[in-house]
Amino acid sequence: MPTQRRVFYSILFIVATFILFSSIPAGAQTKGTRLSIATGGTGGVYYPLGGGMANVISKSVPNTEATAEVTSASVDNCKLVHAGKADLALIMADTGYDSYKGLERFKPGGPQAIRNVAVLYSNYMHFVTLEGLGIKSLSDLKGKRVSTGSPGSGTEVMALRVLESYGINPDKDIKRERLGVAESVGAIKDRKVDAFGWTGGLPTAAVMDLAATPGVKIRVLNCAEHLDQLTQKYGPIYFKHIIPKSTYAQMDSDVPVAYVANLLICREKMDAGLVYNILKTLLEHQPELVAVHKEASNFALATATVGSPIPFHPGAIKFYQEKGIKLN
Fold this sequence. Notes:
By secondary structure, the chain is of the alpha/beta class. About 35% of the residues lie in helices and about 20% in strands. It has 11 helices and 10 strands. The chain has helices spanning about 5-20, 45-60, 75-80, 95-100, 155-165, 180-190, 205-210, 225-235, 270-285, 285-290, 315-320; strands at about 35-40, 65-70, 90, 115-130, 145, 175, 195-200, 220, 240-245, 255-265. Strands 1, 2, 3, 4, 5, 6, 7, 8, 9 and 10 form a 10-stranded mixed β-sheet that branches. The model is unreliable at about 5-30 (pLDDT under 50).
């Protein structure tokens, strides 16, 4: 083939290729940024809420696709973000504080490279048992079979601290299991445990399932009587709140419990513009998150910076400053 003809066809091929790809709609092109959101177990609030966030981000943040991942929750989530194996994560504030400072379970690895994006809602410490087992208070758990949450979860961290505030040694005074909330519900139904701890939003689907089981009446235990001890030891992280009796079927009265804030965190070195856009998008699409779980109704601009024990990411700081929100 003559040289001129080869040159002509080469130019024709390049032009045709350019026209072809230019004609593809923007939404059909491959998305450039993939994000992983570390959540929790399938029976809690983190997983469905994280899934809702992933859906909103994928639809509304340009060139970004997010996926919610099942995890053991807070402790592991901090480690995943620090290691760059997750980009965003839902965690409890007490675990976040320990992670940022390199305390407790994070001592071996030192301070974790995490930053806050937003305060989302409050987690309520549930200690759940069944009527007829002779357990009327947290002190009655001594000698009983108790699940304290899955390994690497924020539930486990908080449950052990609350038990210790009641003078209960988790390694000596109870027969301890380490199950997630869905597994704990299955175990108490099968009478393999007498009670379980769970820290989550209201209502928690797995606890609702237990409360609705025929022939079962749940009892949620008061665990807020020694908050002063927790504050003295761990700082102003835990507070007192009420689980209303209307939350779960057959509850006889409101129950005072300890609660802690939930955070949406990210990698310290995550792109500031991306963090800004994610936060802006999630707040703008908050009704879509509420449709996934009603705890998202507590996620609001006015409270998104209140009670964070760790610093905010620069991208989040820029967003809040533009909205006239003062950071604590």
